[in-house]
């Protein structure tokens, strides 16, 4: 018996060392570590401390920072440990695969993943589930959604559609002349929001209403640079779609610098407190609020339930979207920034 126990201890230590090496090699941020001692991958009732993994797209976007903090709080409340990792940039699918492999080696009970690409993580997810690890997608689904046990996410097509419908209505019949600022070309969220915007705005990818399009990695500085570059080609625009609020902030700065702020309506998606304040100040006209705290908290709670009872969650759960603006339009439900500041995150 002593020999078997010693062997298991050595094996666990090896898994921990190997997992740590993998995580460090990938260039990720290790927020909270600790190999859960003696935990089983099989689920079921248990009272020992266990570990949960979280892999977000980046560690700089306020949206994912909020998600991480919410997951940390939920894990602490449930006496679990959290290992939080982030890719180097939005779209770093290879980095997310490496992070998942490291978490599998560390013997986590569950993994919460915000997939940059809907299909890029399928093999890693399948291996985790084969080893009895609960895998939950946050923020966006995998393709197919059934690759994970469950998903807690924004309906990103709906979020894009709400932004597009608002920006269309804000034109009040004027011919649309739009810039489109996406995330990355292989990002599922970027593709879904882009498609939703086109539907809400009533155009296609080949419409002459699109005066320019650029990828921004979902970040402020690339968003500002992309807008400046597009404005060099034409300043005859009246609408800007943005993938998220950091990009909207960059676009707003570029447009203001060209003296176009009163002529161009900017929309966005996120609902962070800074973003709601930007809507209130007039930097952009509207944002679509989403709820990352709900996603992270429900994800952690599901892993906790699985660790204690073996119960797995199933299906896709829409965590909600709300249009925030102080300039409402007819036919489109919205909340003002007072409401937004009471419900925002970050």
Question: Topology, please?
Answer:
Layout: H1 2-25, E1 51-56, H2 62-77, E2 81-86, H3 93-106, E3 110-113, H4 122-130, E4 134-139, E5 150-153, H5 156-170, E6 178-182, H6 188-201, E7 210-215, H7 220-233, E8 239-242, H8 245-257, E9 265-270, H9 273-281, E10 286-289, H10 292-309, E11 315-318, E12 322-325, H11 337-343
Parallel strand pairs: 1-2, 1-3, 3-4, 4-5, 5-11, 6-7, 6-8, 8-9, 9-10
Antiparallel strand pairs: 10-12
Helix pairs in contact: 1-3, 2-10, 3-4, 5-6, 7-8, 9-11
Output the keywords.
Rossmann fold, 12 strands, alpha/beta, 346 residues, elongated, six-stranded parallel beta sheet, 44% helix
Parts with pLDDT < 50 across at least 5 consecutive residues: 1-45
**Number of DSSP-assigned strands:** 12
Question: What would the CATH topology of the largest domain be?
Answer: Rossmann fold
Distance between the termini: 51 Å
Major beta sheet, strand line-up: 2-1-3-4-5-11
Instruction: Calculate the mean pLDDT score and round it.
Output: 89
Helix percentage range: 40-55%
Shape: elongated
Give the oligomeric state of the chains in this entry, treating copies of one chain as homo and distinct chains as hetero: single chain
- Work out the strand percent: 15-25%
What gyration radius follows from the Cα positions, in whole Å? 22 Å
Largest sheet: 6 strands, parallel
Enumerate how many helices there are, as a single number: 11
The CATH class name of the largest domain reads Alpha Beta
* Number of structural domains: 2
CATH architecture of the largest domain: 3-Layer(aba) Sandwich
The structural class is alpha/beta
Spell out the helices and strands N to C. HEHEHEHEEHEHEHEHEHEHEEH
CATH H-level superfamily title of the largest domain: Response regulator
């Amino acid at each position: 018996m002593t020999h078997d126990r010693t062997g298991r201890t050595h094996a666990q230590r090896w898994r921990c060392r190997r997992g740590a090496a993998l995580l460090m090699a990938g260039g990720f941020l290790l927020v909270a570590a600790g190999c859960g001692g003696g935990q089983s991958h099989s689920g079921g009732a248990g009272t020992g401390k266990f570990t949960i993994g979280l892999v977000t797209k980046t560690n700089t976007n306020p949206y994912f920072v909020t998600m991480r903090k919410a997951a940390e709080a939920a894990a602490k409340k449930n006496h679990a440990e959290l290992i939080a990792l982030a890719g180097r940039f939005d779209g770093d699918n290879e980095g997310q695969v490496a992070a998942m492999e490291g978490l599998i080696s560390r013997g986590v009970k569950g993994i919460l993943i915000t997939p940059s690409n809907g299909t890029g993580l399928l093999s890693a997810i399948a291996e985790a589930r084969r080893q009895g690890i609960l895998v939950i997608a946050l923020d966006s689904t995998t393709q197919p959604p059934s690759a994970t046990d469950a998903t807690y996410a924004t309906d990103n097509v709906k979020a894009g559609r709400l932004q597009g419908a608002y920006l269309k209505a804000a034109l009040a019949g004027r011919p649309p002349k739009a810039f489109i600022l996406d995330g990355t070309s292989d990002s599922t969220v970027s593709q879904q929001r882009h498609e939703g915007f086109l539907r809400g705005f009533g155009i296609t990818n080949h419409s002459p209403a699109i005066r320019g399009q650029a990828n921004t990695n979902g970040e402020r500085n690339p968003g500002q640079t992309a807008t400046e570059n597009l404005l060099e080609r034409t300043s005859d625009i009246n609408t800007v779609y943005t993938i998220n609020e950091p990009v909207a902030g960059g676009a707003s700065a570029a447009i203001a610098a060209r003296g176009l702020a009163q002529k161009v309506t900017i929309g966005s998606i996120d609902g962070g407190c800074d973003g709601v304040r930007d809507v209130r100040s007039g930097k952009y006209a509207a944002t679509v609020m989403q709820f990352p705290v709900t996603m992270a908290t429900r994800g952690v709670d599901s892993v906790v339930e699985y660790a204690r009872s073996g119960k797995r969650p199933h299906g896709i759960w829409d965590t909600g979207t709300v249009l925030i603006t102080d300039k409402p339009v007819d036919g489109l439900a919205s909340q003002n920034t007072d409401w937004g500041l009471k419900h925002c995150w970050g």
